[in-house]
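Subject: for your reference before the review

Hello V.,

The reviewers asked for a structural picture of the protein, and I figured it would be easier to keep everything in one thread rather than splitting it across files. Below is the amino acid sequence we used in the manuscript, unchanged from the supplementary table.
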Amino acid sequence: MKRETIQGIIEDLRAGRTPQLSVADFPAFSKEATEGDSHIGPDVLTRIAAALTQADIPTFERALRAIDEGDLAWLGFKVVYDCAKAVQNVDNEVTKKYGDVGSADGQDLVFFCNDAKEIVASREVSARDVFQMKDVTRGPSMHNDQFDGLTWASQPLFGKVRVWLLGASDAAVELARLADHVGFHVIAVDYDPAFLNEERFPCAERIMLHGGNFDELANMPAKPEDYVCVLTRGHMFDPESCVWALQNNVHYVGMMGCAGKNSTVHDLVLGAGVSEADWQRVKRPIGLNFGAKTPAELAIAIVAELIDVRYKQRYSEEARKKHEDSLGR
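And here is what came back from the structure prediction:
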């Protein structure tokens, strides 16, 4: 979420203007994200924007502060499509009891919620609303359509983790789609346009190298919070890729391949000046271990590992234990 977007909304509301909320800033309302769902879409975002008043300013001010502080926080949206059902819809025999009131006033609402479960909204909410507000920002967007009459959406106020796919292999093609789908910013790198192109990587940022090799990789900076997946075709440029990732001190680096090949890469990487301690940071083979063999299966194994790494990066051990205990695991 861009800081200037939130600042612009605040300025419009202060001036008594209707802010323009675009699907570019709130993609949960885009046609692509809501295809087949008649309850939510770009027109609903326009309706929500038209209903905002100066009473909503504190919600967006809190969102602005969360961006500045790097907080794990979201802007959430309660979308009501049947007021009567939304208000009357209370607990059933399966769900935990949250009182005898459904969704408060049965109107659309924009709210702020962070991982500490601090909620800011312009109107009073019901206990059921609070339950849904926490859920929609947990995933984000968990159990959006759990109850009749309303649905929920959310927009993270923090940036996506960048995942570098070094090599436009078939496994990378499958991985790019999955990683984008679960909220990573994917960057695919290769030197051959026959493999690295829009058709194969429609959802990824693409960086084309020159010279028929990965030499130019050394001139590109990575961030310490980035993830790197070494997937070069034929493993030809795995050593250069590992050296680059380790020299940039990225948060995670994993490499695909068998033990024999990886032993050779080990020698070449250390020969390039990387320490043994740094080499041990390379996850090899990349991905969770559950018998994946095909490119699609390997992609599932890898993205599952990326999700786990991101989860542990964002949440403390105490928070993770609390979550796992709540699930009975």
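For the response letter, the relevant points are probably these. The chain is about 35% helix and 15% strand. The longest strand covers residues 73-80.

Happy to draft the paragraph if you're swamped.

O.
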